[in-house]
Amino acid sequence: MSKSMDGLAEKLFGSSLLHMLKSLFRILSVGPIPNHIAFILDGNRRYAKKQNMAVSNGYRAGFMAVMSMLKYCYVLGVKYMTIYAFSIDNFKRRPEEVQYLMDLMLEKIEGLLHKESVVNQYGVRVHFVGNLKLLSEPVRVAAEKAMEATANNTNSTLLICVAYSSTDEIVHAVQASCHEKWNEIQELNANQLQNVEITKEIQELNQIIKLVDIERHMYMRLAPDPDMLIRTSGETRLSNFLLWQTTSCLLYSPKVLFPEIGLRHLIWAVLHFQRQYPHLEKKKQL
Length: 286
Known about the structure:
Number of helices: 11
Number of strands: 6
GO molecular function: ditrans,polycis-polyprenyl diphosphate synthase [(2E,6E)-farnesyl diphosphate specific] activity; magnesium ion binding
Protein name: Alkyl transferase
Family: Belongs to the UPP synthase family.
Shape: globular
CATH class of the largest domain: Alpha Beta
Mean pLDDT: 87
Strand order of the largest sheet: 3-4-2-1-5-6
Number of domains: 2
Enzyme class: transferase
CATH topology of the largest domain: Undecaprenyl pyrophosphate synthetase
Helix content: 40-55%
InterPro entries: UPP_synth-like, UPP_synth-like_CS, UPP_synth-like_sf
Structural class: alpha/beta
Low-confidence stretches: 1-6
């Protein structure tokens, strides 16, 4: 298995780059490696302006950066990678920009279905996170097909947050928990009418919504909480992203625009995580 994975990595990276990556990985693996890294893709439009190109090309450059980060995270041993691709608030942008983003998203999602795509070569499971009913039907259907096609991939997981905001996720989880609890209460009442013995303790317990109930209905329930969140452009705001999941998460904010992010930025981020790791673990135990 190891030889086949090495062969795949060499095919994707080339022998020289693969050798460099392995050397870096050996150094980094002395310390802890984040299990889950989340990214806020900040700076695509500013990159386009900086390069004097169309905004659409800035977004395409950002997609290429996502694919590069996916490869690097895979080689470094990061099991989960989450990207903030499109927030609910982004629907407020100019209609032509929103339409272009939807068209680009559809194009790239369909590309993930190809046998030779990066996610299939790496064995990456793709999961779309958010209020998917807000997407246009072609994009939503393509997302569902991509999730179904990669459902059996187990090497790592790519979570793509689209039509997402953390407040929407929390509201959705609370509403779903209330609906579920209401159904349980109705079932208890029906059993009582059928003279099924139900203790007062059981009835009271089943009327309480617990933390585990809410977390079970979160959009992000598929993945553990992120260990580190990287937001490019030097911004330190969460912008309504993973507010529930980032209680003990390290925020790293390189000044580079997202399309410019590369291996060295990821290496520095992991080193920063390793320096802060003892403090982060102590905080989790409090």
